[in-house]
Amino acid sequence: MILILEYFYWQFIEIPKRLSRVFLNLMWFGYKFFSIKYCFETLFSPWRKIVFVYKKGFDLGNRLEILFNNAFSRFLGFLMRVFMILFFLIFELIVILIWIGLVSIWIIIPIAAVLGIFISYSLFQNV
Prior knowledge:
It is rod-shaped and about 100 Å long. The protein has one domain (2-125). 82% of the residues lie in helices and 0% in strands. α1 runs antiparallel to α3. The model has no long low-confidence stretch (mean pLDDT 92). By secondary structure, the protein is mainly α. The chain has three helices and no strands. The two termini are 33 Å apart.
């Protein structure tokens, strides 16, 4: 009787806990790999710190060109960081869906096996 209880504990509590720990590590890996904290901290920073410096004196054309280049560099940095955040969210969604699928299958398989045995026994009992 104790062996059966240990099996149920292992099947329905211990292994889902281990799977959860593995998938939490995968989620933590995604957070670190995609540098989410850094992406949010530097969301509006220029791309690769490319910044143009204004020259001395007043030249309207030069000032507008540098202003446009700096704005474009910031926009490009924003766009790249937003895409990194989106890739992170897609990665996390895939990890969560796989985790739900594996835990569901892990829990359903023994129940399906027992039901299969009972159904096959009842089908062949009448033969």
